[in-house]
Amino acid sequence: MTRLINPRLALPVLSLVVLIVAVFWLQPRAMSYVGINLLFNLAVPIALATIAQMIIIMVNDIDLSMGAFVSLAACITAAILPVNPALGVLLLAGCVLAYAALGALIEIRQLPAIVVTLGMSFVWGGAAVLILPSPGGTAPGWLVWLMKSKPPLFPMAIVASVLIATVAHLLIMRSSFGVRLRALGGNARAVSRSGRSTVALRASAYGLAGIFAVLSGMALVGLTTSGDANIALRYTLLSIAGVILGGGEFTGGRISPVGAVIGALTLTLAGSFLSFLRLSPDWQIGAQGAILILVLAARLLVRQAEKRA
Amino acid sequence: MGTQMTNRTGANAPAPAIVRLDGAGKAFGPVKALDHVDLLISPGECLGLVGHNGAGKSTLVNLITGLFAPSQGRVDYPGAEGPLAAGIRAISQEGTLCPNLTVLENLSVVQRDLTGPGWRARAAGRIGRALDAVFPGHRIRPEALVHDMTLAEQQMVEIAIGFSEGATPARLVVLDEPTSSLDASIAAQLLAHVRRFCAEGGAVVFISHMMGEIFDVATRIVVMRDGRNIADRPADAFTRQSLVDAMGHVAADDHSDSSAATAPRNLGDRAKAILRTPEGIEARKGEIVGLAGLAGHGQAEALARFYLSQSSDWRGAADPRAAFVAGDRRRDGVMPVWSIRRNLSLAMLDRLTRSGLIDQHRETEIGESWRKRIGIRTPDMGNPILSLSGGNQQKALFARALATTAPVIVMDDPMRGVDIGTKTEVYEMIRQEAAQGRTFLWYSTEMDEIRNCDRVFVFRDGAISAELEGDQITEENVLAASFEFGETAA
């Protein structure tokens, strides 16, 4: 029960609440079913990509190919899945397996993940251009229906975010499989001394991240109804920022799936907030960075206060 | 009661051993860490394992737990396929907990059957019962995050995981310095549990620098020295004195060596110390001060604190107050892609700089002169540092420190893995430099090096346990101060 009032989640929740209040104050009309859906719509694919990045960070690696990989998944979903569903599913499954193989390679050869994923980002990007040379394609009907459906009481964006956070929490924080993956980030030597294969574990972590990343690409196409080889390039840095914003740390396997989803929501909302401020788009990226620095600085201060206490 | 009796006698007769080492040895390259050890550990035994640094204790433990395969001889687990199936568990000094997991999650990392529905409840039950059994009155919740716990609590959890029930019950538990962060009453609970565990037919290998604890729990003591099993006797056949004698080398060469190494030098009044650290280390001008004791008892930390207090975080200095010679070359020493010359001149760059640029002509000169003085074996100082052997890399690092004008040289066990020839050359160099008024702070885990010192501070548990000078610097005195002897041993 102590998990529910995790102090590490306090700051992410607080930043999200502050931003929501600020947005509603600037634009009271956003305080409606449609308004909230519009605000958080694009957060769903970002949340999925953030969970994928979180799983990689959880095993002490970092993934610089997330954006390119999500773009590739989006291109496959838009260009191949509607035309040839079997081939599309096969390709998406192949992408996940390729991710798992990368994890195994990184562990076996003890390669720095940052280098491997940076190199792979060009491979994913090239494959995406091959599949969809110019923006276009169509989203499968069922996907559009799913992403644009209007459940009662709460808009789809909120329902999907809660669902993603719950599934990721159960999988990563509660299941014994998730515990083993987190143990790899916490103390890899302890894991190998207990007679477990670190190669299999890292490969499963990467494979699991690949699944979430593929889902992210599909969700994105469901929202935009078409694909583009560069559609999600921002996701690499957004997903890293989301994990950190959500209380995760770069090393030691200390992450929070619920926090990561909240971090993704906060980042999406920050963009809307700046639009409502009528800030020129030229300044928006800088301002988004400033918000990020603000939250991280607050976290540092909280940590230091904790240490002194 | 009757069945218990038959069990007892049944186990007593030809008691099948849990682990059997048959002429087992382990070499790392040319270094023999363990040489032809025969050892048998049977149920009901508590084996005390003692020895100084590098005596081969941890290598022996790693062979028993199956972490290393022996490079010579055999390690058998009669009646079981491997160390895990034989019920061998180890609590190592380095810590085997994942700090980002809770107590019960840490148990599931080690115990592979903790999966499927309800695994959390089962894990919580197992670890809770183990903690209650070993440390009655503990206040550790199975749901607590290890990261948030004190060092002592973490150690208690680690020990409890070692003794907890599981799919294969624990039969042999290796405890390596298990009480290093426990207070006396908690340590007493552990010792009581070890005795109970052994009385019920389990076996324990107990490693500690607290001789009192060894005498308290061990039924048999094995003394290791230079990778060999030197003595293997029932615990009551040892006294404090005979243990120290067994751990050290023969007393006779001890003495002749020490007089050969350093004749007492006139260093002046002890009040004229040029440096004093918060731990109590003192040194006079031109003095070679040794820091001895078991590895990891605060010597390296004391040196690092002193060195960092003498240097600035923000700017280099043309005249540093202290220079540092690293022991862990790869971590603290060499710049792997630089040339030997660049590596050598690193600490004195501020003296070589002219209007912001490095005077390459002088750099080459200095490199050449040190190559001759300290005997770095290379045709060209422009070669990459990694083209040198380990010993010659270490010489370059010595030259880096000695080439500065620093009056104090701090050395963090610099001779690790260096051949004997290089060692002798460097000892000579240190003596010459000291004669010219340089002060050396020298942490070493090797007795041969400690004998080169004018004064020695022995560390135990992060504090100085003895200060030895001149004739007092003997292996026996250093050993006696490194280990803690309880009343039972006296």
TrEMBL record, chain A:
Coiled-coil zones: none
Membrane-crossing residue ranges in chain numbering: 9-26, 38-57, 64-81, 87-106, 113-133, 153-172, 203-225, 231-251, 258-277, 283-302
Compartments (UniProt record): Cell membrane
Keywords associated with the record: Cell membrane, Membrane, Transmembrane, Transmembrane helix
Record membrane topology: Multi-pass membrane protein
This protein's GO CC annotations: plasma membrane
Keyword Transmembrane annotated: yes
Protein name: ABC transporter permease
Organism: Paracoccus limosus
